[in-house]
Amino acid sequence: MFSTTLHSGRLAAFGALCLAVAGLTAGAPAARGQSSAEEIRITLGKSIVIDYPVDVARISTSNPEIVDAVAVSTREVLLHAKAHGICTIVVWSKAGQRTFYNISVEHNLEPIRRILKETFPGDPIQIQSARDSITLTGKVTSQSVADRAGALAASLSKTVINNLQINPAGVEKQILLRVKFAELNRNISHSFGVNLLSTGALDTPGAVSTGQFAPPRPANLRGGIPGQTTGTTSEFTLTDALNVFAFRPDLNLAATIRALQTEGVLQIIAEPNLVTTNAKEASFLVGGEFPIPVLQGGANAAVTIQFREFGIRLTFNPQLTPHGTMKMYVKPEVSTIDLANAVTLSGFTIPALATRRMETNIELGPGQSFVIGGLIDDRVTDQMSRIPGLSSIPVLGSLFKSRNENKTKTELLVMVSPEIVDPLNPGDAKPAPVMPRDFMPPVQIKPTSQKGASDPVKSKARKLRAQEKAAPVTVQPVSAAGETKDTPKTGGESH
Known about the structure:
This protein is mainly beta. It is built from 4 helices and 24 strands. Strand 15 and strand 16 form a beta hairpin.
């Protein structure tokens, strides 16, 4: 009974305390109440007006450098965004009520959004601002688009956070470039000349030549005082007998004649093909390298060897365009060793190179062809030498003239044809060159015998070994004269 009364008393005291607190709260002035903060976003450089429901007593801003707040009337507050950032505006009413506003000053993103949409219509790019930074989000088709979008946004803010993601690229298209070199080089040469030589005709050694085709040179002339023809000898050296040589010892007359007509044709057709992917450079070389001696500087003056490439070379870099065409940088080259213009230096023969090289940029569609280079070169060289006076004699004057005429004509054509190709499927026939001769056949390996099966070769070998073991050993007596008596062997023929 006592415990129940005590418990009831405690409950009554607690209830009285709660009523007292409630009464104090209800008796507090309403002007001391505080409403929840409102979020307001303002674009940099713009102003907004807040319509307050009651008369405004005073206004306070946490950072006047970001937002400037002015009461233009008893119930209107003007906010002007001056700089990027976040601040808080507090407005007190005349009744004592306080209202908080969280102000965020952001960039004006509409111009940059419009520019990004017009520049990259196929890429959804979102842009947000936070204080003095700009963030780019979304997915784009390539890294170049992401870089260009970041460069455009950099004009609006110093800090650009580029969170653009690159979409996984599809299968790159394979581009095949076919290049055809076609060159025709023809040359015709006509030459005629006569060198006359007297070793003592009419008691007069001498030579008559225009000097154009290896004239004879006197090597040794001997004479005496007083002069006499008997016993005098003359010697001449011929460095080149040309293509006609005649000598009459009884007349002491000799002649070397150059009468030659030559014709030459050079045909070159090279068709290198090369495959690469879009916007990737590829190169191709079929040929070799030849050594070149190079003198090194210093006290020892050592000679080192460097190698230079020659042959058929192709370098190109294609790039597909949105118009369905291909822009290409093409650099084909064909070079051959030219021994006719070789240089001999310190015992080393250094050959020259005859090179045909083109380097250009073109644009054309798949399957189309373009002649990127062409050349027609006609050359005529005519050289004549003659002896004045003697060359004007009718008929015989031709012996005192020499002439060499060369005509060359070069025609060169370089054509390229790009194609978009697909790889061969596993079941497709693979192309291969046709070989005129057969290769050696593969080695035939006999299959091993199965377990339990008899091998005829091994069985025969085992029988022979068994016969040798079973045969008795026979010792033949030796006669006094060293002769042996023939004794037949078991299982064999008598010898």
